[in-house]
Amino acid sequence: MNPGDGDHQEIGERHLRVLEALLFAASEPLDPVSFKPYLGAGADVQALLLTLQTRYADRGINLVRRGDKWAFRTAQDLGFLLRREEQETRPLSRPALETLAIIAYHQPSTRAEIEEVRGVATGKGTLDLLMEAGWVRMRGRRRTPGRPVTYGTTDAFLDHFGLESLSDLPGLEELKGSGLLSGRLPPSLQIPLPFDGALREDEDPLDPDDHDHDHDRDHDGEDDDA
Is 82 helix (H, G, I), strand (E, B) or coil? Predict the structure, then answer.
């Protein structure tokens, strides 16, 4: 062994301990960039994360990737042991589940596009509910007349449903079997690969006041899903 090998190994182990501590203390999944100030120049964060993931692969908690972020989560086969009393929450309605599924698979989607797939009007309250849950976000505005808002899913959506990326979404038959899509949807419905990334060429950035005012100015009226 070369004289410097021991030093490199010691530094590597220290970096792993730093990552472990940061991930353990974090309340939300962390982006690899957020680790760099704690590791110093030259640290291969991605390689360190993969090493740590391997070390935790057979333990009670696993290091998992959610989009471009990382977090410790209870091992899937042990989750039933750690169920705690949950606060009463309003379960998602059928319209909300359908809307969430359509956004996940067809994003970026406008409200009109969601309604076209569902075949019925989608109330603004349904989209508000999904955004309040942190699973759906406003992405931008479509470059079409009226500039309707486009919607997409969030990293919190991936984390809640245990997905590493949008490509891990289940297939159409699995969705129907789980009740996320109803028989009311057209039988010819195809599940495309969702667009996972920055704004597309047909999207403009959100307006500065989009987060302060009615987020869907292209539609008005009562919540038809209520």
Answer: helix
Its CATH class, for the domain covering 8-82, is: mainly alpha
Rounded CA separation 2/195 (Å)? 48
In b/e form, how buried is each residue of 96-110, taking b as 16+ CB within 10 angstroms?
A: bbbbbbbbbbbbbbb
Is the pTM higher than 0.85? The answer reads no
Q: Residue 158 and residue 85: Cα distance in Å, rounded?
A: 23
Whole-number Cα distances in Å, 113 to 62, 99, 117, 160, 196: 38, 10, 6, 25, 18
Question: Where does 94-204 sit in CATH, by number?
Answer: 1.10.10.10
Confidence of residue 87 (pLDDT cuts 50, 70, 90): very low
Domain boundaries, the chain: 8-82, 94-204
Mean pLDDT of 59-83: 80
